[in-house]
Amino acid sequence: MSDELEFGGGEGGGQTVLARLLEDEMRESFIDYSMSVIVQRALPDVRDGLKPVHRRILYAMSQAGMNPGRAYKKSATVVGEVLGKYHPHGDSAVYDSMVRMVQDFSLRYPLVDGQGNFGSVDGDSAAAYRYTEARLKQLATELLADIEKETVDYADNFDGSHQEPTVLPARVPNLLINGSSGIAVGMATNIPPHNLREVVAATTALIDDPDLGQEELEGIVTGPDFPTGGFICGREGIREAYRTGRGRIVMRARASIEQIDANSERIVITEIPFMVNKSRLIEQIAQLVRDKKLPDIRDLRDESDREGMRIVVELKRDAVPEIVLNRLYRHTQMQSTFGTILLALVDGVPKVMSLRETLQHFINHRLEVIVRRSEYDLRRAVEREHILEGLRTAVDNIDEVIKIIRGSKDAETASAQLQDSFELSERQAKAILDMRLARLTGLEIEKLEEELREVRELLAELRRILESEEVRLDILKDELAEVEKKYGDERRSEITHAVGSFNVEDLIVEQDMVVTVSHQGYVKRLPVDTYRAQRRGGRGLRGMDTKEEDFVEHLFVASTHDYLMIFTRRGQCYWKKVWEIPEGSRVSRGKPIVNLLNLEADEKIAAVVPVREFSEDSYLIFGTRKGVVKKTALSAYGNVRTVGLNAININEGDELIEVRVTSGEDEILLASRNGMAIRFNEADARPMGRATGGVRGLNLREGDEVVGMVVSKGDSTVLVVAEHGLGKRTPINEYRLQ
């Protein structure tokens, strides 16, 4: 709905104002703005892989003579050229775009050669454009090759004063090798960079076999190749991106573990994921150390220099480097995700494409460029043949030509007489009049004949190209092979197994360990081989250094891959893998267990049970100070949690003293402080749920309490030791079964 309103206005006459509904104007204006952003700013063209600002920068630099091998020119020159002639936006947008084309950590194959400070992987900004200089990289000339031969369309610039190319000829598949990212209105693109050799090989294979299978194509282009290297974890995201145009690619930093001395190690990071800021990554790690989420790190420093990146993470003596590295991947940007969206403009329309479609659009573009280049060369060759035929006619009739020229009063008369006498065109006649006398020598005449022969051969070749698509495809393959030979390099990013299939335990050698826990809560592990077998009367070996009034309370052998179920006197249960327990020396005290578990200050360890798996056929028997027992299936505790859970409800004034693993058919023996004992079949205790309190196992007299519980699997012997050192060994069968 709109109405026209006229306003009278003095000498200038009246003005017509269009009255419209606000919502209509907003809707149409926003659509116009959206399309402007989509087509003219944010999205690359599928053919040359460039957004308008990048295309304008490269074209302006080419027009300004800033080619490889020439002297560098101020970046301000580029910004001024682009702003003044082609790009009606801010200077920072132009300069920032040029800076990115210089940075070898932003583009896999940089297009601009910069001199000066163009920023760093630490996030440092580039110097102002009045301080830096630039020129085109050799690869950029491949994007501009043959542009002077009318191979692409041109359009008026913003004010109609100049013309600019709507696309570049692009001899290289730039969209895939350098990728692109941008946010438009209602859509976004995020295309990862790839290896030039792989992309060229895939393009060539698709030319040879247009029906090439997707599996074969993915076997050639194995995945993105990021400029910062690192690892790509898994192929599923790559496969999905190449087939649907969308996929999640997991990237990881490249890190190695170095041995400092016999007891110390460090992690050295040499490559980080694409688009990760190195300084922020280091600060992120440092913050996690301050927050005690990475307690095994004792020092962190950046040793990067001109030779490459080197971030050093020094570890404490009792740290397991594989565990620390896994936590770094989990909690920092050492592992990050690249969300691929293969979105580009196809004939001016945004479209999400597969890898095959992207390559095919590039092939089609190059075929069109070859056709237009050949047509241009054909026109020029035809024109040259025409001139050469006229010159040859003049040479064949040189005496008469000289006579006509000498007898003419001016050049126009001579031209007209030459055209009439020898049936020449005006251009041929002009070429004859412009010919130097030196061309009449025998050698020059031979050169003329040779040039005419070469031009006719060129004409035949150009017509053959234009008549046969097969010939054009061969030319395209030859050009790609030349590009690959000049600019191809090895992959930087290594593709590994998927993160989901990675388990840090796979890095831990399985071996038996002696685990010791002291009364005051110090824990450590030692390889069983540390303790050599001794004969009777041997003095033994010190197995643990303890403080005064501390002693070893729990000692057992378990595999590094076993779980340790750690029970507190309040009935809480925690889990730790044996390999997560710090390995110590024979004489070391160990590490406080409160540093490994989320224990409260006054919580004490009651029992530690090693378990390989949470079987349905096994049970846990709990015994408390007040004689309560509880039997629960081991599988009820299979949901491992880092924060722990309630294993048994403990009544006020009571506490857990022992937990044992049973088969369901064992015998249980409880003993009290006053020397009372009870032996009963495990089958007499019915299984109960996890969050229960158990049943009475032993009736205690006033002042008495349970001090021990053992599990017997048959004809075994019980060793009883009293408080002051008296002991006896008794067959368990002598304890009456009740």
Describe the protein's topology.
Layout: E1 2-7, E2 15-20, H1 22-42, H2 52-63, E3 73-74, H3 75-85, H4 91-102, E4 112-115, E5 133-136, H5 138-144, E6 154-156, E7 163-165, H6 174-178, E8 180-183, E9 188-191, H7 196-208, H8 214-220, E10 231-233, H9 236-244, E11 246-252, E12 254-259, E13 265-271, H10 278-290, E14 297-302, E15 311-315, H11 321-331, E16 335-341, E17 343-346, E18 349-352, H12 355-396, H13 398-407, H14 411-422, H15 426-434, H16 442-467, H17 469-487, E19 494-496, E20 512-518, E21 522-527, E22 552-559, E23 563-568, E24 572-577, E25 591-592, E26 605-611, E27 619-624, E28 628-633, E29 645-646, E30 656-662, E31 667-672, E32 677-681, E33 695-696, E34 706-712, E35 717-721, E36 727-731
DSSP strand tally: 36
- Going across the biggest sheet, name each strand in turn: 16-11-10-19
What is the terminal separation in angstroms?
Answer: 98 Å
Radius of gyration over all CA atoms, rounded: 42 Å
| Main beta sheet strand tally, sense and closure | 4 strands, mixed
Form type: elongated
Which CATH class of the domain at 359-487 is shown? Answer: Mainly Alpha
The CATH architecture assignment of the domain at 359-487 turns out to be: Orthogonal Bundle
SS element count, helices: 17
- Strand fraction equals 15-25%
